Amino acid sequence: MTELAPAPTLGEPQSPVPLDTIPISPADGTGASDKEEQASSDQPVTVFHDPNNFNVKHPLMNTWTLWFTKPPSGKGDNWNELLKEVITFGSVEEFWGIHNNITAVSELSLKSDYHMFKKGIRPEWEDPQNRHGGKWAFQFKDKKAIDIDALWLHMMLAAIGETLEDEGDNEVMGVVVNVRKVFYRIGLWTRTVGKATTSGGENGSGGKTRTADQGKDVLLKIGRRFKGALDLKDTDQVEFSGHMDSAHSGSTRAKAKLVV
């Protein structure tokens, strides 16, 4: 699992910048300044030594993409038009560079969402890789009583640090935070809903054979880790529901399949 260091100290906090001004990562994952520094110095320099001119990056186990859903302007808005791909990253340094320069969750407009998903997966029920899956979710109803920015950061770090599941589970697809008038909601999307899968991976198991009971156990373990990452009380309950159940009910609040 990738071990993430604390956020580097980069001086005085910068003001959030508009999402559409964030540069897209180069195709090869290396910026021009990195190449210049590598050419001018043979000594390894990390972001913790020099936050502006470093030539070493610590790769993550997976490449991730940050998405943003802007608030609808009217009832006729199309979801695909509201969902925007922001940036793709694959290293610890890129993650902190993005996190330190985008608008904090607490400052987003109502009905906004951040989605952080593995590269190649759209944060939509209709994506073929999500079709047979579901999500763990928890609503924070007292918005003033929590630090949503810290909670969302903890959730992102748990996701990219690969601490939400065991190696080979191949379940975690991405994490989401929703900003609503009376609550914040954080969710964790999974590849399956815990059903039996075959070695061929027809249900998106990634080729790992599981019985229904084993699939359920994997999801319950992920749910407990999700709950821990949010620092919830034992009495708090996080619920798991399937995407198809939500689609059929016409709501993101379908009846829970699992609870921890």
CATH homology superfamily name: RNA Cap, Translation Initiation Factor Eif4e
H and E order: HEHEHEEHEEHEHE
Distance between the termini: 24 Å
- Total domains: 1
Largest sheet: 8 strands, antiparallel
Strand content: 15-25%
Number of strands: 8
What's the pLDDT, averaged over the residues? 82
CATH architecture: 2-Layer Sandwich
Q: SS-based structural class?
A: alpha+beta
Topology-level CATH name: RNA Cap, Translation Initiation Factor Eif4e
Number of helices: 6
- What is Rg? 19 Å
CATH structural class = Alpha Beta
Strand arrangement across the biggest beta sheet: 2-1-3-5-6-4-7-8
Q: Per the principal axes of the C-alpha atoms, what is the gross shape?
A: globular
Helix content: 10-25%
Low-confidence stretches: 5-17, 19-40, 199-203
Structure commentary:
Residues 1-41 are annotated as: Disordered. Keywords: Initiation factor, Protein biosynthesis, RNA-binding, Translation regulation. The protein is α+β, with helices and mostly antiparallel strands. It has one domain: RNA Cap, Translation Initiation Factor Eif4e, CATH 3.30.760. Helices cover 23% and strands 21% of the residues. It has helices at 32-40, 79-82, 92-99, 148-160, 212-229, 243-249; strands at residues 59-69, 83-91, 113-118, 134-140, 172-179, 184-190, 239-242, 258-259. An eight-stranded antiparallel sheet has the order 2-1-3-5-6-4-7-8. A hairpin with a 4-residue loop joins β5 and β6 (184-190). The protein is globular. The two termini are 24 Å apart. The model is unreliable at 5-17, 19-40 and 199-203 (pLDDT under 50).
